[in-house]
Specification:
Number of helices: 15
Distance between the termini: 32 Å
Helix content: 40-55%
Strand order of the largest sheet: 2-8-7-6-5-3-4
Number of domains: 2
Length: 407
């Protein structure tokens, strides 16, 4: 595999090392509580499933679908943006359906990137944000993930010191994995900067509906003038518990949407038509399903913060997303996130995602997904507390983990 140019540009998939340990432990009968992959455990709402079943009975829907999305689906997404953000979109020219936001990002990279183009990307961030462009021949320039004045200063340095001038900037708020949330004022400054320097803005808003502190996260497209430079990607995976359905969207700048649509037309025929019809029904719903999902993740977040805190591991409560971005406890920090994650599988029967998998600046953290019920989260906390107690004070003094805890 490493004989090929594009695969040589990809590093080893660090999550696979934890996955192998999970599989091995389960084969021995271990009950692994998996807080690693952000794979929602909640069922897709019944009304959405019923619509799928209804439509799939019609043989006419079994034929090739539309790569850019059926008209009703694109109209539903445009109406959602109008209701939720006050943003007006032309469903014919400014909306395209994607096979999840991940596919949308990868194909946008294919559409706009020439070899050597510089892409500004937060670090840590969701891997496709960087590697979609790396596979397309781009070069990544990292900036901090936190959306504050430091981010804006880093943007300024990136433009001054990058040759060629950066082509695009990646945004992801609420962020996976850090759970940072951006404000509309932050977006205004970013859009002004991007328009001044003729930089494309690609915003990943997959977690727009999973928030906990009252204020819904904004869209970058709410900023006047953003449509001149920006495209935003959303997903139904988390909002409607539809991860396996592979349904998402790209919306925004007409020229960029046209480029993505053209690339997709060569690569896929779109999602299965019954899925698109069911997704249309979901978007046109009253929002009750979204609110219920949000409440469940909110309760799980609170249980995790409380139970893990009592176990001796302080978890900063995330303001949004279905993840907690947790600093590695001091006595284990010297191990790094991958070894610490492997240790949790081996000694506590708990799987987490190593922060290094999201970029080198994530190596002092692990990501915990809220994909187990409250009982299982408490069970994970008890197992971790027992493991921490077995290590004892020896690990805390000098960051040395006893051999007995590592074997």
């Amino acid at each position: 595999m490493d004989d090929f140019h594009k695969t040589r540009r990809l590093p080893p998939y660090v999550f696979e090392q934890v996955n192998r340990l999970k599989a091995s432990a389960r084969s021995r009968g271990a009950d692994i509580i998996d807080l690693g992959m952000g794979n929602p455990d909640l069922p897709t709402p019944k009304a959405i499933v019923d619509k799928l079943v209804e439509v799939v009975r019609d043989p006419r829907t079994h034929r090739y679908s539309s790569s850019r999305g059926i008209p009703g689906l694109r109209r539903a997404q445009a109406n959602y943006y109008a209701r939720r953000f006050g943003v007006k979109l032309n469903p014919d020219t400014q909306v395209v359906a994607t096979l999840g936001s991940k596919e949308g990002f990868a194909n946008m990279a294919q559409a706009i990137t020439a070899p050597g183009d510089v892409i500004i990307c937060p670090n840590p961030t969701y891997p496709i944000h960087a590697f979609g462009f790396i596979m397309s021949g781009g070069v990544i320039r990292s900036v901090q993930a936190e959306p504050d004045d430091g981010f804006l200063a880093a943007l300024d340095r990136a433009v001054k010191h990058s040759i060629p001038t950066p082509l695009a900037l990646i945004l992801n708020y609420p962020s996976n994995p850090t759970a940072y949330v951006a404000t509309l004022d932050f977006y205004k400054e970013v859009v002004a900067f991007a328009r001044k320097h003729e930089i494309i803005v690609l915003s990943d808003l997959a977690y727009s509906e999973i928030y906990f502190n009252g204020e819904p996260p904004p869209s970058v497209l709410q900023v006047p003038g953003a449509m001149d430079v920006a495209v935003e990607f959303t997903s139904m995976s988390k909002t409607f518990s539809m991860p396996g359905w592979r349904m998402g969207f790209a919306v925004g700048n007409e020229r960029l949407i046209a480029a993505l649509t053209r690339v997709k037309s060569y690569l896929d025929y779109g999602a299965f038509t019954p899925i698109q019809v069911a997704a249309t029904a979901a978007l046109n719903g009253d929002g009750a399903d979204i609110a219920e999902v949000r409440q469940i993740y909110h309760r799980r977040r609170d249980v995790m913060v409380d139970a893990f805190g009592k176990a001796g591991w302080t978890i900063p409560p995330p303001a949004a997303t279905m993840f907690a971005w947790a600093p590695i406890p001091d006595q284990f920090k010297a191990l790094g996130s991958l070894e610490f994650s492997k240790l949790l599988v081996e000694k506590a029967d708990v799987a987490v995602a190593p922060g290094i998998g999201f970029g080198e600046h994530g190596d002092d953290y692990v990501r915990l997904a809220l994909v187990e019920n409250e009982h299982r989260i408490r069970q994970a906390a008890r197992s971790i507390k027992k493991f921490f107690s077995s290590v004892g004070a020896a690990g805390a003094s000098g960051n040395v983990i006893p051999l007995s805890a590592r074997r």
